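Sample entry (228 residues):
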Amino acid sequence: MAVVLHAGYSVVVSGDDGSVRGTGREGVYDTDTRLLKAFAYTLAEAPPRLVGSEQLAAHRWRGWLVVPSPTRTSDIAGPALPQDVLDLRIDRAVGPGVIDHLTIANRSGAAVRTALRLEVEPDFADVQEVDGRRRQQGRLQPAAVVGERSWRYLAERGEARFERGVRVRVTDQSGAPIGPFELPVALEPHADVTFVVVVEPWADGTWRTPDPARQDSRLEGWDGRRTR
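Predicted structure, serialized as tokens:
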């Protein structure tokens, strides 16, 4: 079952586990353009399995996922046990773009050394092209620095120009950039770590950063004005 989040001109259509893999209309959209057709996480070389989720608002979603711990063993003597897992909690907010707060927790009595990988693929299809034939074919200009990848897209036909862009940034909890998009995860027993992934759309010459608190305030104001 698809999860649809929206705020302003930004929309995210994902699977029920929060992953975007380009199936059907899945994607990260802004201003009627599918910026990303892939936006998903792999932990310990496996796609996390959904165990629970809740949609907190039209623009907010939270998911709890797990993968088998790479240290798990069939030996029940410990400290590593057969049922050991790594938890991945995704706190997602939309508008403009997307921001994911990722918390990885080690539910094992043994230390873990593994990696979180972010899978991203740009698209820039018009929303009317997603289900059908691609009509515009433009030039894609990628760029990358530590903890950041960006793509600018330009399509021209006659005097008409179509320009869009998307930037994906990864930071630690303090806001320091980290990367590339395969992040080392080193956790002592029962410890956790947090990463922040930000998707910023570019349109009309401006990068726009997610501001979910502003959307929260708008919804609170609307709730206060409703007829009771």
